[in-house]
Amino acid sequence: MNLNIFAIRLFISIILKIDYIECACTLPTVLNGNIWDSRRGTIVFSNSNSELSSGWEVSVLAQTWTIFNCIESDSTHWLFQSTTSVEIYGPKYYGFYCVRYTKITDYSYYYYLDSNMEVNAADTRISFIEESIVNAGVTLSSVCNPTSGPSPEEFHVLVKKDRQADVKQWFPDALLGVYAYTVTDASSSVFCGSGSVWDACTNRTTISYNYTQCSTQMFGSTDGEFYATKYVTSGSTSYVIIINADSTTSTRFTCLAVSGSSVSSNSGSCVKGQSATTNTADSASVVISLSAYAFTSASAAPSSSNVGIIVGVVVVLILLIAGAIGGFIFYHKYKKKPFPWQKTKVQNGSEENAEKPDDESKANGVRV
Ligand SMILES: *[C@@H]1O[C@H](CO)[C@@H](O)[C@H](O)[C@H]1NC(C)=O
Ligand SMILES: *[C@@H]1O[C@H](CO)[C@@H](O)[C@H](O)[C@H]1NC(C)=O
């Protein structure tokens, strides 16, 4: 009898345990090892135990939470809890990151932190929950309900390390074009200007700077090439996080806020309320003024070669029509005494017209 009760209890506890595991956290398999985070630089996940082992450290009154475990997830959120609790003016607290995520590509996500800004943690968006409350049980819905949550521009991106070329998205309309650019840095020095080239037209996912035309390196890039990872538009301002295409760099991400022809930069993610016309507190922040690029006769060469292509196409079309008429006359002239090879040739000729040009819609990135 005792043994039966024991067996039933064991059975129930196994079921409960399974239920518990099922409502826990599943992180996408790509979040394993080194991940580039626009908010924090390189961070480290261990997918097998749903752990964020490095990169999201938070210091509170000279104590630090270092490791966070994902304790619950759904299709829009991951809830991370610090592995330790720290004393804050008496009671002990755990720190919780409420990560509201959206997949962009197989190698990139963007996210918001659904917590208020915490003054005791240098304004990080993180929730402090008392140990006794945590021990009684917390969930996504009980933790992730900020009264003053993030604004649209406060997004961040996660990119699998070394996958910068696989996460390209389109730039916002205001940045698509070829421009000359004038850069004003934090100490009011002015660079570039007339003759400089900002090309986000050749590829709508890529900004290429021509360092021959203006040698000032932009946003820590030695090659002068950046890809858009994600942009959002709020009011008349678009915010885009760009990723440096260089294989190694100390500045992987930069946010550009753009409104009209004015752009401001901030290293990493955008800052709350970032204006397109003023520097942020970041010492590397610059303000850029875009102007229409003055095409020279040399740089206008592509359009004259377009004229060449059009003329060529017309000539080929005329030749084809002439050939078809000639073939038609030839066919009718010898129609009364056909040879087998003539018939085959005409059928092949008509098949030729069935060919269609390649689909061009798979070019470049996907607009989000
Ligand atoms: C534009 O994209 C194509 C295809 O991805 C690439 O071959 C080319 O080098 C790119 N051009 C520039 C200027 O980045
Ligand atoms: C950059 O400018 C130089 C000098 O005008 C030019 O020769 C070169 O082709 C340009 N590079 C690109 C990628 O357009």
UniProtKB/TrEMBL annotation:
InterPro entries in alphabetical order:
DUF7042
Basic and acidic residues composition bias: residue spans: 353-362
Region described as Disordered: 344-368
List the keywords (alphabetical). Membrane, Signal, Transmembrane, Transmembrane helix
Q: Which residues form the DUF7042 domain?
A: 176-273
So where does this one cross the membrane? 307-331
User: Where does the signal peptide begin and end?
Assistant: 1-23
Q: Return the protein name.
A: DUF7042 domain-containing protein
Annotated organism of origin: Mytilus edulis
